[in-house]
């Protein structure tokens, strides 16, 4: 698929995809005979995972580190797993905070609901 198709599937701009290529998150992108980028199904799968990491709050620097380790192959599996475990712990803490915030909002909503219905 070309960059426009990948952009449509991932909801990332072509500029962002080129930037990710430049900083090493999308390495080794193939080019067709006319020099245009050509993305494979595995590129789509990889960028979809990157989007999940980004949307769950992983800093770009850590995503770059993960991508570089990924490029080095299976020898870095333990390091990549540790990065993901660390990110999972951060994500769990963020979810716990958000759950507490949600409970506080629910309590305030119930306060007003009871006040209005009294």
Q: Report the count of strand segments.
A: 2
SSE pattern, N- to C-terminal: HHEEHHH
Task: Please give the count of helices.
Answer: 5
Number of discrete domains: 1
The rounded distance between the terminal residues' Cα atoms is 61 Å
Shape designation = elongated
The CATH top-level class label = Mainly Alpha
The side-by-side strand order for the widest beta sheet comes to 1-2
Average pLDDT reading: 96
Portion in beta strands: under 5%
Largest sheet: 2 strands, antiparallel
User: What Rg is obtained from the alpha carbons, in whole angstroms?
Assistant: 20 Å
The assigned CATH architecture is Orthogonal Bundle
Structural class, from secondary structure content?
A: mainly alpha
Helix percentage range = over 70%
CATH topology: Multidrug-efflux Transporter Regulator, Chain: A, Domain 2
Low-confidence stretches: none
Topology of this protein?
Layout: H1 3-10, H2 14-22, E1 30-31, E2 37-38, H3 41-55, H4 60-71, H5 77-117
Antiparallel strand pairs: 1-2
Structure, explained:
The chain is mainly alpha-helical. It has a single domain (3-117), classed as Multidrug-efflux Transporter Regulator, Chain: A, Domain 2, CATH 1.10.1660. The protein is built from 5 helices and 2 strands. It has helices at residues 3-10, 14-22, 41-55, 60-71, 77-117; strands at 30-31, 37-38. Helix 4 (60-71) packs antiparallel against helix 5. The model has no long low-confidence stretch (mean pLDDT 96). Residues 1-69 form the HTH merR-type domain. This is MerR family transcriptional regulator. Keywords: DNA-binding.
């Amino acid at each position: 698929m070309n960059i426009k198709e990948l952009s449509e599937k991932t909801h990332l701009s072509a500029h962002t995809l080129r930037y990710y290529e430049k900083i090493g998150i999308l390495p080794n992108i193939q080019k067709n005979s006319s020099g245009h980028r050509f993305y494979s199904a595995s590129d789509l799968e990889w960028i979809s995972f990157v989007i999940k990491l980004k949307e769950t709050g992983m800093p770009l620097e850590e995503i770059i580190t993960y991508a570089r380790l990924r490029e080095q192959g299976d020898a870095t599996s333990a390091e990549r797993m540790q990065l993901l475990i660390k990110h999972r712990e951060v994500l769990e803490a963020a979810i716990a905070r958000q759950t507490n915030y949600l409970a506080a909002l629910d309590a305030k909503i119930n306060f007003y609901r009871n006040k209005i219905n009294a």
